[in-house]
Structures are given as structure tokens and as C-alpha cells.
Design brief:
Chain lengths: ~140, ~100
Amino acid sequence: MATTKLGFIVQRPGYKSENPKLALTHAIASQSVEIYLKDGDIVTADIAFIGDGVLNCIKGQKAVENYDLNSTESHIKMSLLLDLNVLVCKEDLERFGMTESDIVIDAPEFGAEVEVKVVPYTEISKMMEEMNHLLFF
Amino acid sequence: MKLVAFVSDYKMTVDTLDRLKPEKLGIILVQNGVYHATTKEKGKPSSLLNYSADYYVLQEDLETRGLSGANVIDSKVKVIKFGDIVDLMFNEYDKTAWL
């Protein structure tokens, strides 16, 4: 039985490029690979927003209304529904003058039971050290 | 020359705007460029707002990112819609540039 840990690090703002949202779609997709694994093997996915990437987490995104696009906000909520560990860098939020009240924290409307965690960068760094594979977006 | 420049990135690594010397300059903040209008880093507004220019920010791109006109930090930046961009391009400026 083996566990493969994937870490998705988002460091760019969203929407101009598909790149930051791909981190979320890849993390979500990683949870559907059981059919390719041996019994007992699992894949976990952690997501961390750092640097300008924290701007992806601002709540109230109206991407569907304006561009008929699924919002990055909804992807973050989907990640929570799958119990993925979603971290946001506290120092980078503060750099932009933002707090937890400005960003997506939970997704009760999706039935998600876990929440986004705003943590110091040291904690994100620790998470990155624990991963088998790190993917930067 | 009357030039309107679209700024679509938040972090800019070129100084093109410094080198342009139009008689009239407009800067339209679109896509991730809208963060120049709404975001302070360590309490400081974007240096992009220091040019002698008329500033505009696209409402649709603000809203897509969870922002609105209420988040615009400098009153010299006017919130406009797509239709207004067309009017500006045809009525106010000779040339356009996309940065």
C-alpha cells in the first residue's frame, strides 16, 4: 500500500491564463484515478495559493455571468467538497491588505465539510517538503 | 499621437509605457490588469497609476475576479464596460496598443 502525495502550488492570478485554474482541475482529477491504482494505493492532493496566486481566492467571482466561464471560486469549492487540503498564504494575503473575510473559506452549498486554511508560509513550506511531487502553476 | 494602451497583466516586466510619448495617453486596465486599480501591496498603490493619463478599468473583468467599482482605490480610474471601450477607441484615440 502506497500513498502518492501531490502538491499544487498556485502563484499567478487567475483568468488571463487558464494556468492557475488548471492546478485546481488537475488536483480534482487526481482523485479519480483509483481504477489505475493497486488496491490500497491512494493519491492525495494539497493545494497552496502563494504570492499573487492568493488573488484567485477572492470571493464573489462573477465569471459565469460575464464570460460564461466556471469561476476559479467554484473550483476551489469543488476542491473542498473532495476534502482536499487547500492552503492560502497568510503573509501574501496581508501584503494585499486582505483578510479571511475577503476570500473563499468554505462551501456549505456544495456540501463541503472542510475549509480553506489561511496559514503562515512556513506551514506551506512544510507541506511542500512532505509531497512526493510538486507542480507549480 | 493619441494612444490608448490596454494593460492586461498585473506584474509588468517591461517599461514600454515609459518610452511612449503620445500627446494624449489613455490606459485601459483589462484582464489581470484590473488589479492595478484595486490592489495595494504593503499599503502602496500600483506605480502604473502614476502616469499622466486617463485611466479606465473594465467592469466585466473586475466582476469576474470578485471585485467591483467599490474596490477601485483611485477616483481617477473610471469604471467602464465593453461598449465604452469601443467608443473610446473610435472617438478619443488614434492608435491602440496591447501591453
